[in-house]
Amino acid sequence: MAVTPKLVQSADKLKESAVDIKDSAAKTEISTARIEGSADRRTELAADRTVFAAERTYAAWVRTGLMAIASGVGAKALLTGVLPQWLILATGSVLILFSAFCFGAAVWRNLYDAAPPVPSAKRLHPGLLIVVNGFLVLVAIAALVGILFDRVSP
């Protein structure tokens, strides 16, 4: 059987096409790996941002609690002689109890928030959060005792 030049030309084109398809498949595989790596990195960065947002939220709760303690003690100091003693005690007590709530909420929000995918950023150690905020709650209780039992005559 005789091979015609058209058949040889067609076979050559098929071989070239097969090589092109093979090259294209290799490039697609490399591109897919890059995209997957990029998506993994974006997920990791999003997890890091979540950790940092949780730390900012923790700091906001602690800051609010510290301001509530200062306001409770300040209410006692500034309002003595201006308002009735029972109202001063009630106001200071509510502010200081709110501060204790803020310290507890800070730990709770940081420890029991939804866990992000594995971040590369390190989180604050839970024991550290509990110790520091436990101390702040004790300070709030001491301030409350100071307000309630420090009888200053109006």
Secondary structure topology:
Elements: H1 5-79, H2 85-112, H3 126-149
Helix pairs in contact: 1-2, 1-3, 2-3
Please indicate the count of domains.
Answer: 1
Shape: rod-shaped
Q: Oligomer, anyone?
A: single chain
Regions with pLDDT < 50 over 5+ consecutive residues?
Answer: none
- What pattern of helices and strands is seen along the backbone? HHH
Q: In whole angstroms, how far apart are the ends?
A: 123 Å
Helix percent band = over 70%
Q: Please describe the biggest sheet, giving its number of strands, its sense, and whether it closes into a barrel.
A: none
Strand content: under 5%
Structural class, from helix and strand content?
mainly alpha
Per DSSP E runs of 2 or more residues, the count of β-strands stands at: 0
Number of helices: 3
Using only C-alpha atoms, the radius of gyration works out to 34 Å
Average pLDDT, all residues: 83
